[in-house]
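During the second half of the funding period, the structural biology subgroup turned its attention to how the target accommodates small molecules. The most pressing case was pyridoxine-5'-phosphate, which had performed well in the primary screen but for which no bound structure existed. We therefore specified the complex as follows and requested a full 3D prediction, including the ligand pose.
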Amino acid sequence: MIRLGVNIDHVATLRQARRAHEPDPVAAAVLALLGGADGITVHLREDRRHIQERDVRLLRQVVTNRLNLEMAAIPAIADFACEVKPDEATLVPEKREELTTEGGLDAVAHEKAVERIVKQLHTAGIEVSLFLDPDPRQIEIAHILKVRAVEIQTARYSEARTPTERQRERDALIQAAEFARERGLHVHMGHGLNYENVRAVAAISCVEELNIGHSIVARSTLVGMTQAVRDMKDAIRRAKGL
Ligand code: PXP
């Protein structure tokens, strides 16, 4: 069964809209775990627009299955990660003006900087995943840097407007996943997945983990976090014919 990492950043976005104490992403994490989340994912952004350091520290105590910290490959955040020790760190690109992570990390262009951060995280015993476009040149760097996993970004697939375009983007995901698997990398996917488009991605054979945030948090405002996570688990299960 594919693991579901639930990204709860946008629970914190709602809290930060009023600089208030609620809703608390830590409470959301507990409810997501009750709904069957296999792990919790949060992105500590440089501008702290949603998740705060306090959240990550508390989540480290509450999330006993798998805490995945998305982070830019920069020393200040790496130092924080090494102190808090999530189970996994996923290195993502970060631009202050973007609404959400746009595209994968350019590991080819920034190989040396990424390598330094990967080594620091590995020394602290943290598993590393690189968030990459479905591009063999990028995945090859993940292999060279000996990280455990790649998270192949599904934004282009999610945003495809026509069935032909969607098929082409799905084929690119399949090829990238196979390329990664052949090199011994664990394969994760995420970005822009929802209750509909998740099925065709979950059906790809070597995908082990999906990280999904916006659509689950959006549904949770209407039906509650536990139910929203259960519904996503069901959608993934159905894709696998289970
Ligand atoms: N994976 C990564 C690396 C991300 O940066 C994000 C967005 O924070 C997600 C998955 C989740 O994307 P979405 O919120 O569109 O489900």
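Two results from this model are relevant to the next phase. Strands lie at 3-7, 39-43, 67-71, 88-91, 127-132, 149-153, 186-190, 209-212. The mean pLDDT is 96.
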